[in-house]
Design brief:
This protein is mainly α. Helix 1 (3-15) packs antiparallel against helix 2 and helix 2 packs across helix 8 (142-158). The chain contains 10 helices and no strands. The N and C termini lie far apart (42 Å).
């Protein structure tokens, strides 16, 4: 379902004026994330927060193995889903042909910059996604959750940050449509984006929030 962020961004950029295309694309980008999060599906980058908290509490190898196992299973499932969606979009009449130029442009922008830049920009996307997971847990109201998702996810597109799963759909689409190479999609985007997302989610959200909670317990 995360692939609908890619489609929504391309559609918004197509119907908006050239001057507003980037802003419209960013505004539409959270749609796929809302479908995943509100639908209670597993998104890899959400798992840089909640499963890490027990590891920070226990500091044992068993918990570390469980976290790594969960990450591996969810990441593999997410990437398979991203690949399937990208292949459908690239090789079937699922979407209108008028969306293709915008989708190719988005894919090219996602792949731009090389390993180090994708990794660096992935840190901030991981930070925002883990923050999203933290904030959404603060309310059970669906409308409030949607607003929080939009506020924290739209900046990923607006500022060109790299989300490993949503961006994987874009990278895989580009590889399927333009023949840029599957190895390039994995090594040039997926791997650095995954590493950056983990760093951003674990360090900037899980560690900081855990430290705050631990400090409050110490004072309590």
């Amino acid at each position: 379902m995360i692939g609908w962020s890619f489609v929504a961004s391309a559609y918004a950029a197509t119907v908006a004026s050239p001057a507003m295309a980037s802003a419209a694309s960013a505004a539409a980008y959270p749609i796929g994330f809302a479908l995943v999060i509100i639908g209670r599906n597993q998104l890899f980058t959400e798992n840089t927060l909640e499963p890490v908290i027990p590891l920070l509490e226990d500091h044992d190898l068993r918990t570390l193995r469980l976290v790594l196992r969960l990450w591996g299973i969810v990441l593999f499932g997410n990437l398979v889903g991203a690949l399937f969606f990208a292949l459908l979009a690239a090789h079937t009449p699922m979407l209108q042909s008028k969306l293709e130029p915008a989708m190719l442009r988005i894919g090219q922008e996602a792949m731009a910059g090389g390993f180090a830049r994708v990794f660096y920009l992935g840190i901030f996307a991981g930070w925002l996604i883990a923050l999203t997971a933290w904030l959404v847990q603060a309310t059970e109201r669906t409308l409030a959750q949607i607003v929080l998702i939009w506020l924290t996810i739209a900046p990923i597109s607006a500022f060109g940050f790299r989300h490993s799963i949503a961006g994987a759909v874009e990278a895989f689409y580009l590889a399927a449509k333009m023949g840029t190479g599957w190895g390039y999609a994995l090594g040039g985007f997926v791997i650095p984006a995954v590493l950056g997302n983990i760093v951003g989610g674990v360090i900037f959200v899980a560690l900081l929030n855990h430290g705050q909670v631990a400090a409050e317990r110490g004072h309590g």
